[in-house]
Every structure is written in C-alpha cells, then in structure tokens.
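Bug #2210: token dump truncated for Thioredoxin reductase glit-like protein?
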Amino acid sequence: MQEQAIDVLIVGGGPAGLAAALAIGCHRHNVTLFDNESPRITSTSSFTGINMLPAWSSAHTKNYILEARRDIRDHYPTVTLVDATIVKAEKVWAGDIMVTNSDGKCWVGKKLVIATGYEDMLPDIPGYKEAWGKSIFHNLAYQGREAPRVGLLADNPAEIGLYHAKCAAQLANRVTIYTNGDDKLQKLFIGDLLQVQRYCHKFFFDNRRIISLQTDAGDTTLAKDIRIQLEDDTIVTEAFLVHTPQLKVKDTLKFSEDIHLELARDFNAKAGDSAARAPHYQTVDRGIFVAGDLVTRYKHMASAISSGCNVGISASIQLLQEKYEDWPHF
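Reproduced locally. Full output below:
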C-alpha cells in the first residue's frame, strides 16, 4: 500500500473512466485508473461505428480506447493506468477509500470514481452469440443500413422494442417482430402498434418459437443476412436482427456496507442504474462518484464521456475545496 493517499481512484477504463481521468489529470491531481480490459463491446464484435461521437463515427471502439490511453500516458504524468481487476472498495481512516485487486494489492484514495458499466445478458438461443455484433445489432445508430426486410427480436420491456421497431422501419420496407412464442408479449406490441399502423404499414408479427439463428459471418466480419429457424422448421432470412439484450451490472466489484450506491427509481432501475444525478453524479457518500452507463439513461459513448467529464471536474473541485479549506458546495 502507498504511503500517501492518491487523490482519485477510478475503477473502469472505458470512455467514462478515461474522460474522468483526463479531466482530473488536466488539473494535475494524482489519479490511478484501474481497468481489466473487459468492455461491453468486445474487440471480436463487428460494431464498427462509435455512435454519435464526431470524427470517430467510422472507427472501432477499441481503437478509440487505445488512442485515449496513449494520449493520457503521453501528456498527463499525474495519471497512472493500472491493468487490474478491482474486487473490493471500502472506507478507511479520515474518509479515504481503499480498493483491493484480485491479487490482494491495495490502494488508498481520497475520491473514488466507479465507471465499471454493464455486461449484456445474451438470450439462450443457439447461434445468437455467434451472430451478436455481426448480424444482430442492439442499436441501429451503430450499424443501421437500408434493407428490404429486417427482423426485431422482441423482449421486455416492450417500450424499448417498440422504439427499435420504429427505427428499423426507417431503413426497411418490412419489419417482422419475432416474439419467440410469447403470447403476452405479442399482445403488448399489438396494442401499441395499432396507433403506429395509422402512419406506417411495415410491421408484421411472427409468434413462432425460435429454434436457432444462423449466419455466415467470420470472427470479426459483418454478415450479409441472418437465417432464423422456427419451430415448424421454416427458415426465414432477414437482412439483420435488432435486439437489445437485458443488461447486468458487472458484479466483480464488491462494496463494504458503509458505501451506499442507491439505485435509480425509474424504468432502468432493474438494470441497476445509480441514483447519482447530474451534474456531479455523486452518490450519497461525499467523494464517491459514478460515471458512464451506470448513470446515463441512453447507453451511448458520447453520454458516457459527458458524465465522466462532469465527474472528473466535480472531483477536482472537491479536492481544491479541501486543499484551501473552502466551504464545500456539494
């Protein structure tokens, strides 16, 4: 363990964590950022565009992360990047926070930024995992492309699926909503789409159970189409499928009982979103912040970077308030 507390500890080296490190490093505070290289969008995925990030819309997320890390290493000497999996965070003396990695090594900091994000819970459909990111897309802003017909794999909550169905209709002449044998889900969609059909007649339903998904994509290449095998052995071919898997908060990091991460009370609460709110994204514990997908309703990189920047500035403000014994504003 180091002799003196580090100014800020950041757990999670995705866009939000890197933005926070940059904002704090600009003010020459000491920062240690921990990352175990397990992004939600992996390097084997074929998601190529970075959604709504100017100048990077045709680049891969992995390349953005590598360039951001290089820039921080080259220009911000007070920021240290550590390859480690942090498994525990707890309060210690004088209000400091101690984090421990999987090897038992400890670091102590004055502030803590949590930017660990989510992981996707892929459905248990044979062939889904192999097609994910190649012919199944969770966001058409990443891989939207015009096609004669596309499919939407319906899932709860229905309102999200309905939104993606409308987005798909912007690109295709026919959108088939596959409810995978779920009669209740089909009724939910039908009720909502009755009003939509007044403006658009592109939507169709298929309630048959899905047996498997097949695609000819390589390890890192997009597929030309996806073949859906249904329960009666019929095979339907779509240009691609749209589906947003359920999200799960990464549970590698455990918190002591004296650290309180209240969950949001909105429709995202079941996904585990933090109740920390803009602009500071501070939890009920002063000096502990949350950034990235854990605090943004829309899980886009631009939103993650924005929250990370806010958190970095907020942590820096608190450090300066404490250094000069100013009355704390938050």
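Output looks complete on our side. The helical segments are 15-25, 61-75, 128-131, 140-143, 158-169, 183-196, 301-323. Marking as cannot-reproduce; reopen if the truncation happens again.
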